[in-house]
Amino acid sequence: MAVARTDEAAMRADEGFSATARIARARRAEAIFVAVGIGVTSIGVITLIALLAGLAHDGWSRITPDFFLNFPSRRAGQAGILSAWVGSMVVMLVCAAVAIPVGVGAGVYLEEYAPKNWITDVVEINVNNLAGVPSIVYGLLALGLFVYGLGLGQSVATAGLTLALLILPIVIVATRESVRAVPFSIREAAYGVGATKWQVTSHHVLPSASSGVATGVIIGLSRALGETAPLVTIGALSFIAFLPTPPVQGEFPFISFQWLLDPFTVMPIQMFNWVSRPDPAFQSNAAAAGLVLLVMTLAMNGFAIWFRIRMRNKIKW
Amino acid sequence: MSITQTAGVSTVARLNSPQARARRARQRLRERVIETVLLLCGAASVAITVAIVAVLVLESAHFFGHVSIFEFLTGTVWTPLFADAKYGILPLVTGTLLSSGVALAVAFPLGMVIAIYLSEFAHERVRETLKPFLELLSGIPTVVYGYFALLFITPLLQATIMPNLPGFNILGAGIVMGIMIIPYISSLSEDAMRAVPTALREGSLALGATKLQTSIKVVLPAAFSGLAAAAVLAIARAVGETMIVAIAAGQQPNFTFDPTESAATVTAYIAQVALGDLPHGSIAYQSIFAAGLTLLGMTLVFNLAAYALRRRFREAY
Prior knowledge:
The complex is a heterodimer of chains A (317) and B (317). Chain A is an all-alpha fold and 317 residues long. Chain A has a domain at 79-266: MetI-like fold (Orthogonal Bundle). Chain A is 73% helix and 0% strand. Chain A contains 13 helices and no strands. Chain A has helices at 2-14, 19-41, 43-59, 65-69, 82-113, 118-130, 135-149, 156-180, 184-192, 197-226, 229-233, 267-275, 280-314. Chain A is flat. Chain B has 317 residues and is mainly alpha-helical. Helices cover 76% and strands 0% of the residues of chain B. Chain B has 13 helices and no strands. In chain B, helix 8 (198-206) packs antiparallel against helix 9. At the A-B interface, helix 2, helix 3, helix 5, helix 6 and helix 7 of A face helix 2, helix 4, helix 5, helix 6 and helix 7 of B.
Protein backbone atom coordinates (compact mmCIF):
# COMPACT_ATOMS: atom_id res chain seq x y z
CA MET A 1 0.00 0.00 0.00
CA ALA A 2 2.69 2.39 1.05
CA VAL A 3 4.81 1.20 -1.85
CA ALA A 4 2.01 1.87 -4.31
CA ARG A 5 1.55 5.34 -2.96
CA THR A 6 5.25 6.09 -3.38
CA ASP A 7 5.09 4.87 -6.96
CA GLU A 8 2.14 7.06 -7.62
CA ALA A 9 3.94 10.06 -6.17
CA ALA A 10 7.01 9.26 -8.22
CA MET A 11 4.86 9.00 -11.34
CA ARG A 12 3.27 12.32 -10.58
CA ALA A 13 6.70 13.83 -10.08
CA ASP A 14 7.75 12.28 -13.35
CA GLU A 15 4.74 13.60 -15.13
CA GLY A 16 6.61 16.65 -16.31
CA PHE A 17 9.03 14.37 -18.12
CA SER A 18 6.55 12.01 -19.69
CA ALA A 19 6.45 11.88 -23.46
CA THR A 20 3.04 13.54 -23.83
CA ALA A 21 4.02 16.39 -21.54
CA ARG A 22 7.26 16.90 -23.42
CA ILE A 23 5.48 16.97 -26.73
CA ALA A 24 2.97 19.46 -25.34
CA ARG A 25 5.80 21.67 -24.09
CA ALA A 26 7.58 21.50 -27.42
CA ARG A 27 4.38 22.42 -29.22
CA ARG A 28 3.84 25.34 -26.86
CA ALA A 29 7.42 26.53 -27.42
CA GLU A 30 6.88 26.36 -31.14
CA ALA A 31 3.60 28.27 -31.01
CA ILE A 32 5.28 30.95 -28.89
CA PHE A 33 8.16 31.18 -31.35
CA VAL A 34 5.83 31.58 -34.31
CA ALA A 35 3.98 34.34 -32.50
CA VAL A 36 7.25 36.07 -31.60
CA GLY A 37 8.50 35.56 -35.16
CA ILE A 38 5.46 37.23 -36.69
CA GLY A 39 5.73 40.05 -34.17
CA VAL A 40 9.42 40.68 -34.79
CA THR A 41 9.11 40.36 -38.55
CA SER A 42 6.40 43.00 -38.44
CA ILE A 43 9.01 45.44 -37.12
CA GLY A 44 9.24 46.79 -40.66
CA VAL A 45 5.57 47.70 -40.68
CA ILE A 46 5.66 48.94 -37.09
CA THR A 47 8.68 51.19 -37.65
CA LEU A 48 7.19 52.64 -40.82
CA ILE A 49 3.93 53.42 -39.07
CA ALA A 50 5.80 54.94 -36.10
CA LEU A 51 7.95 57.08 -38.40
CA LEU A 52 5.05 58.30 -40.50
CA ALA A 53 2.86 58.92 -37.46
CA GLY A 54 5.66 60.69 -35.55
CA LEU A 55 6.55 62.94 -38.47
CA ALA A 56 2.92 63.67 -39.26
CA HIS A 57 2.22 64.47 -35.62
CA ASP A 58 5.09 66.97 -35.46
CA GLY A 59 4.91 68.41 -38.95
CA TRP A 60 1.45 67.95 -40.44
CA SER A 61 0.42 71.52 -39.61
CA ARG A 62 3.29 72.77 -41.80
CA ILE A 63 2.24 70.81 -44.90
CA THR A 64 0.55 73.61 -46.83
CA PRO A 65 0.93 74.78 -50.44
CA ASP A 66 3.08 77.65 -49.13
CA PHE A 67 5.53 75.18 -47.60
CA PHE A 68 6.29 73.86 -51.08
CA LEU A 69 6.44 77.31 -52.67
CA ASN A 70 8.49 79.26 -50.11
CA PHE A 71 12.25 79.59 -49.81
CA PRO A 72 13.94 78.86 -46.47
CA SER A 73 13.66 81.72 -44.05
CA ARG A 74 14.90 82.90 -40.69
CA ARG A 75 11.31 82.80 -39.50
CA ALA A 76 10.21 79.21 -39.10
CA GLY A 77 6.58 79.92 -39.92
CA GLN A 78 7.44 81.30 -43.38
CA ALA A 79 10.17 78.86 -44.28
CA GLY A 80 9.55 76.41 -47.10
CA ILE A 81 11.23 73.78 -49.20
CA LEU A 82 11.03 75.25 -52.70
CA SER A 83 14.78 75.45 -53.28
CA ALA A 84 15.21 72.05 -51.61
CA TRP A 85 12.81 70.03 -53.72
CA VAL A 86 13.80 71.79 -56.94
CA GLY A 87 17.44 71.17 -56.00
CA SER A 88 16.73 67.50 -55.33
CA MET A 89 15.08 67.12 -58.74
CA VAL A 90 17.94 68.83 -60.57
CA VAL A 91 20.62 66.84 -58.74
CA MET A 92 18.72 63.60 -59.41
CA LEU A 93 18.65 64.51 -63.10
CA VAL A 94 22.44 64.82 -63.26
CA CYS A 95 22.86 61.72 -61.14
CA ALA A 96 20.58 59.64 -63.39
CA ALA A 97 22.17 60.99 -66.58
CA VAL A 98 25.57 59.74 -65.40
CA ALA A 99 24.76 56.64 -63.35
CA ILE A 100 22.31 54.96 -65.74
CA PRO A 101 24.45 54.82 -68.92
CA VAL A 102 27.70 54.07 -67.11
CA GLY A 103 26.15 51.56 -64.74
CA VAL A 104 24.17 49.72 -67.40
CA GLY A 105 27.21 49.80 -69.72
CA ALA A 106 29.45 48.32 -67.05
CA GLY A 107 26.87 45.67 -66.18
CA VAL A 108 26.40 44.68 -69.82
CA TYR A 109 30.15 44.58 -70.35
CA LEU A 110 30.72 42.30 -67.37
CA GLU A 111 27.95 39.89 -68.34
CA GLU A 112 28.09 39.83 -72.14
CA TYR A 113 31.50 40.99 -73.28
CA ALA A 114 34.11 40.49 -70.58
CA PRO A 115 36.57 37.69 -71.30
CA LYS A 116 37.19 35.32 -68.41
CA ASN A 117 40.51 36.61 -67.16
CA TRP A 118 42.04 38.25 -64.12
CA ILE A 119 41.14 41.77 -65.25
CA THR A 120 37.46 40.83 -65.24
CA ASP A 121 37.92 39.28 -61.81
CA VAL A 122 39.46 42.50 -60.52
CA VAL A 123 36.56 44.59 -61.88
CA GLU A 124 34.09 42.18 -60.38
CA ILE A 125 35.63 42.15 -56.90
CA ASN A 126 35.96 45.89 -57.13
CA VAL A 127 32.25 46.47 -57.83
CA ASN A 128 31.34 44.35 -54.81
CA ASN A 129 33.76 46.28 -52.61
CA LEU A 130 32.50 49.66 -53.82
CA ALA A 131 29.02 48.73 -52.61
CA GLY A 132 30.48 48.45 -49.10
CA VAL A 133 32.30 51.79 -49.03
CA PRO A 134 30.62 54.20 -46.56
CA SER A 135 28.74 56.98 -48.35
CA ILE A 136 30.66 59.72 -46.55
CA VAL A 137 33.88 58.45 -48.14
CA TYR A 138 32.35 59.26 -51.55
CA GLY A 139 31.84 62.73 -50.14
CA LEU A 140 35.54 62.99 -49.32
CA LEU A 141 36.42 61.78 -52.81
CA ALA A 142 34.16 64.44 -54.29
CA LEU A 143 35.57 67.12 -52.00
CA GLY A 144 39.13 66.36 -53.05
CA LEU A 145 38.44 65.58 -56.71
CA PHE A 146 35.40 67.48 -57.97
CA VAL A 147 35.27 70.49 -55.64
CA TYR A 148 38.98 71.34 -55.58
CA GLY A 149 40.67 69.03 -58.11
CA LEU A 150 38.38 69.86 -61.04
CA GLY A 151 37.25 73.20 -59.65
CA LEU A 152 33.53 72.44 -59.93
CA GLY A 153 32.90 73.93 -56.49
CA GLN A 154 29.85 73.15 -54.38
CA SER A 155 27.62 72.89 -57.43
CA VAL A 156 24.74 70.86 -58.81
CA ALA A 157 27.22 69.06 -61.08
CA THR A 158 29.43 68.04 -58.14
CA ALA A 159 26.44 66.76 -56.16
CA GLY A 160 25.00 64.85 -59.12
CA LEU A 161 28.35 63.23 -59.94
CA THR A 162 28.96 62.31 -56.30
CA LEU A 163 25.61 60.59 -55.96
CA ALA A 164 26.10 58.93 -59.36
CA LEU A 165 29.35 57.34 -58.13
CA LEU A 166 27.54 56.27 -54.98
CA ILE A 167 24.71 54.43 -56.74
CA LEU A 168 26.83 53.04 -59.58
CA PRO A 169 27.37 49.68 -57.83
CA ILE A 170 23.61 49.33 -57.27
CA VAL A 171 22.88 49.92 -60.98
CA ILE A 172 25.70 47.61 -62.09
CA VAL A 173 24.62 44.74 -59.85
CA ALA A 174 20.95 45.10 -60.86
CA THR A 175 21.90 45.17 -64.56
CA ARG A 176 24.09 42.10 -64.23
CA GLU A 177 21.45 40.10 -62.42
CA SER A 178 18.72 40.87 -64.90
CA VAL A 179 20.97 40.39 -67.95
CA ARG A 180 22.08 37.04 -66.56
CA ALA A 181 18.45 35.99 -66.19
CA VAL A 182 17.80 36.34 -69.94
CA PRO A 183 17.83 32.79 -71.34
CA PHE A 184 20.54 31.88 -73.81
CA SER A 185 18.05 30.61 -76.37
CA ILE A 186 17.06 34.23 -77.07
CA ARG A 187 20.68 35.19 -77.80
CA GLU A 188 21.24 32.07 -79.90
CA ALA A 189 18.14 32.75 -81.98
CA ALA A 190 19.36 36.28 -82.72
CA TYR A 191 22.87 35.10 -83.58
CA GLY A 192 21.31 32.43 -85.76
CA VAL A 193 19.70 35.00 -88.07
CA GLY A 194 23.00 36.86 -88.39
CA ALA A 195 22.80 39.57 -85.75
CA THR A 196 26.06 41.04 -84.45
CA LYS A 197 26.90 40.96 -80.75
CA TRP A 198 25.70 44.52 -80.17
CA GLN A 199 22.51 43.88 -82.13
CA VAL A 200 21.84 40.83 -79.97
CA THR A 201 22.54 42.86 -76.84
CA SER A 202 20.65 46.02 -77.73
CA HIS A 203 17.70 44.48 -79.60
CA HIS A 204 17.07 41.43 -77.45
CA VAL A 205 19.01 41.11 -74.21
CA LEU A 206 18.55 44.65 -72.91
CA PRO A 207 14.82 44.90 -73.71
CA SER A 208 14.25 41.55 -72.00
CA ALA A 209 16.25 42.70 -69.00
CA SER A 210 14.80 46.20 -68.90
CA SER A 211 12.32 45.68 -66.06
CA GLY A 212 15.05 44.39 -63.75
CA VAL A 213 17.34 47.24 -64.73
CA ALA A 214 14.56 49.75 -64.14
CA THR A 215 13.93 48.33 -60.67
CA GLY A 216 17.60 48.68 -59.77
CA VAL A 217 17.77 52.20 -61.15
CA ILE A 218 14.72 53.31 -59.16
CA ILE A 219 16.10 51.82 -55.94
CA GLY A 220 19.45 53.50 -56.63
CA LEU A 221 17.83 56.86 -57.30
CA SER A 222 15.71 56.68 -54.17
CA ARG A 223 18.89 55.99 -52.23
CA ALA A 224 20.51 59.04 -53.85
CA LEU A 225 17.45 61.14 -53.06
CA GLY A 226 17.76 60.39 -49.35
CA GLU A 227 21.56 60.62 -49.09
CA THR A 228 22.83 63.42 -46.92
CA ALA A 229 26.31 62.61 -45.69
CA PRO A 230 28.29 62.89 -48.96
CA LEU A 231 26.59 66.18 -49.82
CA VAL A 232 27.27 67.58 -46.37
CA THR A 233 30.89 66.59 -46.88
CA ILE A 234 31.29 68.47 -50.15
CA GLY A 235 30.10 71.52 -48.23
CA ALA A 236 26.61 71.96 -49.68
CA LEU A 237 25.03 75.14 -48.38
CA SER A 238 21.78 74.81 -46.57
CA PHE A 239 20.53 78.38 -46.89
CA ILE A 240 19.70 78.79 -50.57
CA ALA A 241 16.98 81.34 -51.23
CA PHE A 242 17.05 81.12 -55.02
CA LEU A 243 16.57 78.54 -57.75
CA PRO A 244 19.16 77.28 -60.26
CA THR A 245 19.40 79.25 -63.51
CA PRO A 246 16.68 78.09 -65.90
CA PRO A 247 18.13 75.93 -68.70
CA VAL A 248 16.12 77.79 -71.35
CA GLN A 249 16.95 81.46 -71.77
CA GLY A 250 15.04 84.25 -73.50
CA GLU A 251 18.04 85.42 -75.49
CA PHE A 252 20.71 83.84 -77.65
CA PRO A 253 21.94 81.04 -77.36
CA PHE A 254 18.66 80.18 -75.60
CA ILE A 255 20.09 77.17 -73.81
CA SER A 256 22.20 77.62 -70.69
CA PHE A 257 24.19 75.09 -68.70
CA GLN A 258 24.86 77.56 -65.92
CA TRP A 259 22.50 75.58 -63.66
CA LEU A 260 25.10 72.81 -63.50
CA LEU A 261 27.49 75.17 -61.72
CA ASP A 262 24.93 76.83 -59.45
CA PRO A 263 25.00 76.24 -55.71
CA PHE A 264 22.17 74.06 -54.47
CA THR A 265 20.43 72.54 -51.52
CA VAL A 266 18.47 69.30 -51.40
CA MET A 267 15.65 67.93 -49.25
CA PRO A 268 17.74 65.92 -46.77
CA ILE A 269 20.20 68.77 -46.23
CA GLN A 270 17.37 71.22 -45.63
CA MET A 271 15.90 68.79 -43.12
CA PHE A 272 19.29 68.27 -41.42
CA ASN A 273 19.69 72.02 -41.12
CA TRP A 274 16.30 72.40 -39.46
CA VAL A 275 16.67 69.40 -37.18
CA SER A 276 19.97 70.78 -35.82
CA ARG A 277 18.25 73.91 -34.53
CA PRO A 278 17.01 73.87 -30.95
CA ASP A 279 13.91 75.97 -31.78
CA PRO A 280 10.88 73.59 -31.81
CA ALA A 281 9.26 75.64 -34.60
CA PHE A 282 12.12 74.68 -36.91
CA GLN A 283 11.88 71.09 -35.75
CA SER A 284 8.29 70.93 -36.94
CA ASN A 285 9.60 72.25 -40.28
CA ALA A 286 12.12 69.39 -40.17
CA ALA A 287 9.32 66.92 -39.49
CA ALA A 288 7.30 68.27 -42.42
CA ALA A 289 10.32 68.09 -44.75
CA GLY A 290 11.04 64.58 -43.44
CA LEU A 291 7.48 63.53 -44.14
CA VAL A 292 7.72 64.74 -47.75
CA LEU A 293 11.12 63.06 -48.17
CA LEU A 294 9.94 59.82 -46.60
CA VAL A 295 6.83 59.66 -48.75
CA MET A 296 8.95 60.30 -51.87
CA THR A 297 11.50 57.57 -51.11
CA LEU A 298 8.87 55.11 -49.91
CA ALA A 299 6.88 55.69 -53.08
CA MET A 300 9.95 55.01 -55.23
CA ASN A 301 10.98 51.94 -53.24
CA GLY A 302 7.45 50.64 -53.03
CA PHE A 303 7.00 51.06 -56.77
CA ALA A 304 10.27 49.22 -57.43
CA ILE A 305 9.32 46.32 -55.16
CA TRP A 306 5.80 46.10 -56.62
CA PHE A 307 7.22 46.23 -60.14
CA ARG A 308 9.71 43.48 -59.37
CA ILE A 309 7.08 41.18 -57.90
CA ARG A 310 4.75 41.84 -60.83
CA MET A 311 7.46 41.15 -63.37
CA ARG A 312 8.53 38.00 -61.58
CA ASN A 313 5.00 36.66 -61.74
CA LYS A 314 4.48 37.74 -65.32
CA ILE A 315 7.64 36.70 -67.13
CA LYS A 316 7.76 33.03 -67.92
CA TRP A 317 10.59 32.45 -70.34
CA MET B 1 15.22 25.14 -110.48
CA SER B 2 16.63 27.97 -112.44
CA ILE B 3 14.86 30.41 -110.16
CA THR B 4 16.56 29.03 -107.03
CA GLN B 5 19.89 29.02 -108.81
CA THR B 6 19.47 32.61 -109.84
CA ALA B 7 18.43 33.47 -106.31
CA GLY B 8 21.47 31.66 -104.89
CA VAL B 9 23.84 33.36 -107.28
CA SER B 10 22.30 36.75 -106.69
CA THR B 11 22.53 36.24 -102.90
CA VAL B 12 26.21 35.44 -103.13
CA ALA B 13 26.72 38.34 -105.49
CA ARG B 14 24.82 40.60 -103.14
CA LEU B 15 26.90 39.52 -100.12
CA ASN B 16 30.12 40.08 -102.07
CA SER B 17 29.14 43.41 -103.56
CA PRO B 18 31.36 46.36 -102.57
CA GLN B 19 28.45 48.00 -100.74
CA ALA B 20 27.88 44.90 -98.63
CA ARG B 21 31.57 44.63 -97.81
CA ALA B 22 31.65 48.27 -96.83
CA ARG B 23 28.58 47.80 -94.67
CA ARG B 24 30.14 44.83 -92.91
CA ALA B 25 33.33 46.77 -92.32
CA ARG B 26 31.30 49.63 -90.84
CA GLN B 27 29.45 47.19 -88.66
CA ARG B 28 32.69 45.63 -87.41
CA LEU B 29 34.05 49.04 -86.60
CA ARG B 30 30.87 49.95 -84.76
CA GLU B 31 31.06 46.73 -82.77
CA ARG B 32 34.63 47.54 -81.75
CA VAL B 33 33.74 51.09 -80.72
CA ILE B 34 30.79 49.89 -78.66
CA GLU B 35 32.86 47.21 -76.98
CA THR B 36 35.50 49.78 -76.07
CA VAL B 37 32.88 52.16 -74.64
CA LEU B 38 31.40 49.36 -72.54
CA LEU B 39 34.88 48.38 -71.35
CA LEU B 40 35.43 51.99 -70.27
CA CYS B 41 32.18 51.88 -68.28
CA GLY B 42 33.44 48.77 -66.50
CA ALA B 43 36.80 50.39 -65.91
CA ALA B 44 35.07 53.43 -64.39
CA SER B 45 34.31 51.42 -61.27
CA VAL B 46 37.99 50.58 -60.87
CA ALA B 47 38.88 54.22 -61.47
CA ILE B 48 36.53 55.22 -58.63
CA THR B 49 38.30 52.89 -56.22
CA VAL B 50 41.71 54.15 -57.29
CA ALA B 51 40.54 57.77 -56.96
CA ILE B 52 39.10 57.16 -53.48
CA VAL B 53 42.32 55.64 -52.23
CA ALA B 54 44.47 58.27 -53.98
CA VAL B 55 42.54 61.26 -52.61
CA LEU B 56 42.44 59.87 -49.07
CA VAL B 57 46.11 58.85 -49.03
CA LEU B 58 47.39 62.08 -50.60
CA GLU B 59 45.53 64.41 -48.25
CA SER B 60 46.31 62.19 -45.27
CA ALA B 61 49.98 62.28 -46.23
CA HIS B 62 49.90 66.08 -45.80
CA PHE B 63 48.19 65.57 -42.46
CA PHE B 64 50.76 63.06 -41.26
CA GLY B 65 53.45 65.54 -42.23
CA HIS B 66 52.26 67.59 -39.25
CA VAL B 67 50.99 64.93 -36.88
CA SER B 68 52.83 61.76 -35.97
CA ILE B 69 51.02 58.55 -36.82
CA PHE B 70 51.79 57.29 -33.32
CA GLU B 71 49.98 60.22 -31.71
CA PHE B 72 47.11 59.81 -34.17
CA LEU B 73 46.59 56.14 -33.39
CA THR B 74 47.17 56.17 -29.62
CA GLY B 75 46.07 59.62 -28.43
CA THR B 76 42.85 59.80 -26.44
CA VAL B 77 42.09 63.48 -27.03
CA TRP B 78 40.72 64.73 -30.35
CA THR B 79 40.48 68.52 -30.55
CA PRO B 80 41.72 69.56 -34.02
CA LEU B 81 39.59 72.72 -34.02
CA PHE B 82 40.92 74.06 -30.71
CA ALA B 83 43.88 76.40 -30.38
CA ASP B 84 45.61 73.64 -28.42
CA ALA B 85 45.01 71.00 -31.09
CA LYS B 86 45.32 67.34 -30.16
CA TYR B 87 45.04 64.62 -32.76
CA GLY B 88 44.29 61.32 -31.07
CA ILE B 89 41.67 59.44 -33.10
CA LEU B 90 40.79 56.93 -30.36
CA PRO B 91 37.78 58.83 -28.96
CA LEU B 92 36.21 58.85 -32.43
CA VAL B 93 37.02 55.16 -32.89
CA THR B 94 35.47 54.18 -29.56
CA GLY B 95 32.41 56.31 -30.35
CA THR B 96 32.08 54.52 -33.68
CA LEU B 97 32.53 51.03 -32.23
CA LEU B 98 30.20 51.77 -29.33
CA SER B 99 27.34 52.99 -31.52
CA SER B 100 27.85 50.09 -33.93
CA GLY B 101 27.95 47.71 -30.97
CA VAL B 102 24.60 48.99 -29.70
CA ALA B 103 23.20 48.69 -33.21
CA LEU B 104 24.39 45.09 -33.49
CA ALA B 105 23.03 44.23 -30.03
CA VAL B 106 19.62 45.38 -31.25
CA ALA B 107 19.76 44.04 -34.78
CA PHE B 108 21.44 40.66 -34.35
CA PRO B 109 18.89 38.92 -32.06
CA LEU B 110 15.94 40.44 -33.91
CA GLY B 111 17.46 39.67 -37.31
CA MET B 112 18.13 36.10 -36.23
CA VAL B 113 14.54 35.52 -35.08
CA ILE B 114 13.26 37.03 -38.34
CA ALA B 115 15.59 34.86 -40.41
CA ILE B 116 14.62 31.65 -38.59
CA TYR B 117 10.96 32.53 -38.83
CA LEU B 118 11.10 33.42 -42.52
CA SER B 119 13.28 30.53 -43.63
CA GLU B 120 11.85 27.73 -41.47
CA PHE B 121 8.31 28.61 -40.41
CA ALA B 122 6.60 31.30 -42.48
CA HIS B 123 4.12 30.41 -45.17
CA GLU B 124 4.85 31.71 -48.64
CA ARG B 125 2.06 34.30 -48.40
CA VAL B 126 3.21 35.70 -45.05
CA ARG B 127 6.82 35.89 -46.26
CA GLU B 128 5.89 37.66 -49.48
CA THR B 129 3.85 40.20 -47.51
CA LEU B 130 6.27 40.98 -44.69
CA LYS B 131 9.61 40.89 -46.50
CA PRO B 132 9.06 43.96 -48.70
CA PHE B 133 8.30 46.03 -45.58
CA LEU B 134 11.58 44.88 -44.04
CA GLU B 135 13.42 45.87 -47.22
CA LEU B 136 11.84 49.32 -47.01
CA LEU B 137 13.60 49.83 -43.66
CA SER B 138 16.97 50.05 -45.40
CA GLY B 139 15.57 52.51 -47.95
CA ILE B 140 14.48 55.14 -45.44
CA PRO B 141 16.68 58.28 -45.61
CA THR B 142 19.11 58.26 -42.71
CA VAL B 143 18.38 61.89 -41.89
CA VAL B 144 14.80 60.82 -41.13
CA TYR B 145 16.17 58.07 -38.86
CA GLY B 146 18.29 60.71 -37.14
CA TYR B 147 15.22 62.81 -36.43
CA PHE B 148 13.50 59.69 -35.12
CA ALA B 149 16.43 58.91 -32.78
CA LEU B 150 16.72 62.45 -31.44
CA LEU B 151 13.07 63.38 -31.06
CA PHE B 152 11.32 60.03 -30.60
CA ILE B 153 13.53 57.25 -29.20
CA THR B 154 15.61 59.37 -26.81
CA PRO B 155 12.57 61.11 -25.24
CA LEU B 156 10.91 57.69 -25.01
CA LEU B 157 13.92 56.28 -23.11
CA GLN B 158 14.02 59.35 -20.88
CA ALA B 159 10.34 59.04 -20.06
CA THR B 160 10.45 55.33 -19.31
CA ILE B 161 13.61 53.65 -18.08
CA MET B 162 16.42 56.21 -18.16
CA PRO B 163 15.36 59.56 -16.72
CA ASN B 164 18.99 60.77 -16.57
CA LEU B 165 19.79 60.12 -20.21
CA PRO B 166 21.25 63.22 -21.88
CA GLY B 167 19.44 64.58 -24.96
CA PHE B 168 22.32 63.54 -27.19
CA ASN B 169 23.44 59.98 -26.53
CA ILE B 170 24.94 56.94 -28.23
CA LEU B 171 22.17 54.63 -27.06
CA GLY B 172 19.29 56.23 -28.95
CA ALA B 173 21.36 56.60 -32.10
CA GLY B 174 22.58 53.00 -31.81
CA ILE B 175 19.07 51.59 -31.33
CA VAL B 176 17.78 53.36 -34.43
CA MET B 177 20.87 52.31 -36.39
CA GLY B 178 20.07 48.76 -35.24
CA ILE B 179 16.58 49.02 -36.76
CA MET B 180 18.17 50.28 -39.95
CA ILE B 181 20.52 47.28 -40.29
CA ILE B 182 17.96 44.59 -39.40
CA PRO B 183 17.17 43.93 -43.09
CA TYR B 184 20.85 43.31 -43.89
CA ILE B 185 21.18 40.77 -41.10
CA SER B 186 17.85 39.07 -41.66
CA SER B 187 18.19 38.70 -45.42
CA LEU B 188 21.83 37.54 -45.35
CA SER B 189 21.03 35.09 -42.53
CA GLU B 190 17.92 33.83 -44.29
CA ASP B 191 20.01 33.12 -47.40
CA ALA B 192 22.55 31.25 -45.26
CA MET B 193 19.82 29.15 -43.62
CA ARG B 194 18.10 28.34 -46.89
CA ALA B 195 21.44 27.09 -48.20
CA VAL B 196 21.45 24.38 -45.51
CA PRO B 197 20.49 21.11 -47.26
CA THR B 198 16.99 19.83 -46.58
CA ALA B 199 18.40 16.38 -45.81
CA LEU B 200 19.83 17.70 -42.53
CA ARG B 201 16.40 19.00 -41.50
CA GLU B 202 14.72 15.78 -42.53
CA GLY B 203 17.20 13.75 -40.49
CA SER B 204 16.48 15.82 -37.42
CA LEU B 205 12.71 15.77 -37.92
CA ALA B 206 12.79 12.00 -38.44
CA LEU B 207 14.43 11.60 -35.03
CA GLY B 208 11.42 13.31 -33.52
CA ALA B 209 12.74 16.84 -33.09
CA THR B 210 10.28 19.67 -33.54
CA LYS B 211 10.74 22.35 -36.17
CA LEU B 212 12.02 24.78 -33.55
CA GLN B 213 14.53 22.26 -32.17
CA THR B 214 15.65 21.50 -35.70
CA SER B 215 16.07 25.19 -36.49
CA ILE B 216 18.09 25.96 -33.40
CA LYS B 217 20.16 22.78 -33.03
CA VAL B 218 20.67 21.78 -36.67
CA VAL B 219 20.07 24.66 -39.08
CA LEU B 220 21.68 27.43 -36.99
CA PRO B 221 25.00 25.60 -36.43
CA ALA B 222 25.11 24.49 -40.06
CA ALA B 223 24.62 28.08 -41.23
CA PHE B 224 27.05 29.50 -38.66
CA SER B 225 29.55 30.93 -41.10
CA GLY B 226 26.85 32.79 -43.01
CA LEU B 227 25.31 34.17 -39.83
CA ALA B 228 28.65 35.40 -38.51
CA ALA B 229 29.42 37.00 -41.85
CA ALA B 230 26.01 38.71 -41.79
CA ALA B 231 26.74 40.18 -38.36
CA VAL B 232 30.14 41.46 -39.41
CA LEU B 233 28.84 42.97 -42.66
CA ALA B 234 26.10 44.70 -40.68
CA ILE B 235 28.74 46.20 -38.36
CA ALA B 236 30.65 47.46 -41.38
CA ARG B 237 27.43 49.13 -42.50
CA ALA B 238 26.84 50.70 -39.07
CA VAL B 239 30.42 51.94 -38.83
CA GLY B 240 29.97 53.97 -42.02
CA GLU B 241 26.62 55.46 -41.04
CA THR B 242 26.79 59.22 -40.61
CA MET B 243 23.58 61.15 -40.25
CA ILE B 244 21.94 59.22 -37.41
CA VAL B 245 24.95 59.66 -35.13
CA ALA B 246 25.66 63.21 -36.30
CA ILE B 247 22.12 64.24 -35.36
CA ALA B 248 21.40 62.15 -32.29
CA ALA B 249 24.68 61.17 -30.61
CA GLY B 250 26.14 64.64 -30.08
CA GLN B 251 29.30 65.87 -31.77
CA GLN B 252 31.72 66.12 -28.86
CA PRO B 253 34.56 63.58 -29.06
CA ASN B 254 34.40 61.60 -25.84
CA PHE B 255 36.74 58.75 -24.89
CA THR B 256 34.15 56.55 -23.23
CA PHE B 257 32.68 53.07 -23.24
CA ASP B 258 29.37 54.13 -21.75
CA PRO B 259 26.57 54.20 -24.35
CA THR B 260 24.42 56.51 -22.26
CA GLU B 261 26.89 59.36 -22.76
CA SER B 262 27.14 61.55 -25.83
CA ALA B 263 30.08 61.04 -28.15
CA ALA B 264 31.21 61.72 -31.70
CA THR B 265 31.97 59.06 -34.28
CA VAL B 266 34.52 59.21 -37.09
CA THR B 267 31.74 59.95 -39.56
CA ALA B 268 30.07 62.57 -37.36
CA TYR B 269 33.40 64.39 -37.06
CA ILE B 270 33.82 64.50 -40.84
CA ALA B 271 30.30 65.86 -41.29
CA GLN B 272 30.76 68.43 -38.53
CA VAL B 273 34.02 69.79 -39.94
CA ALA B 274 32.75 69.80 -43.52
CA LEU B 275 29.75 71.87 -42.42
CA GLY B 276 32.03 74.44 -40.85
CA ASP B 277 33.44 75.76 -44.15
CA LEU B 278 37.13 75.15 -43.50
CA PRO B 279 39.88 76.73 -45.58
CA HIS B 280 41.13 74.29 -48.20
CA GLY B 281 44.57 72.95 -47.23
CA SER B 282 44.41 73.67 -43.49
CA ILE B 283 45.30 70.90 -41.04
CA ALA B 284 41.70 70.61 -39.89
CA TYR B 285 40.68 70.18 -43.56
CA GLN B 286 43.31 67.46 -43.98
CA SER B 287 42.25 65.82 -40.72
CA ILE B 288 38.89 64.79 -42.20
CA PHE B 289 40.74 62.84 -44.90
CA ALA B 290 42.84 61.12 -42.23
CA ALA B 291 39.59 60.34 -40.42
CA GLY B 292 38.12 59.07 -43.70
CA LEU B 293 41.13 56.83 -44.25
CA THR B 294 40.65 55.42 -40.74
CA LEU B 295 36.98 54.81 -41.50
CA LEU B 296 37.78 53.08 -44.78
CA GLY B 297 40.35 50.96 -42.95
CA MET B 298 37.79 49.93 -40.34
CA THR B 299 35.15 48.93 -42.92
CA LEU B 300 37.82 47.09 -44.89
CA VAL B 301 38.81 45.09 -41.81
CA PHE B 302 35.19 44.14 -41.15
CA ASN B 303 34.56 43.22 -44.78
CA LEU B 304 37.70 41.07 -44.91
CA ALA B 305 36.70 39.44 -41.63
CA ALA B 306 33.29 38.59 -43.07
CA TYR B 307 34.95 37.12 -46.15
CA ALA B 308 37.37 35.07 -44.04
CA LEU B 309 34.58 33.84 -41.75
CA ARG B 310 32.53 32.69 -44.67
CA ARG B 311 35.48 30.85 -46.17
CA ARG B 312 36.90 29.31 -43.06
CA PHE B 313 33.70 28.03 -41.49
CA ARG B 314 31.90 27.03 -44.63
CA GLU B 315 30.75 23.46 -44.15
CA ALA B 316 30.81 21.35 -47.25
CA TYR B 317 27.88 19.03 -47.75
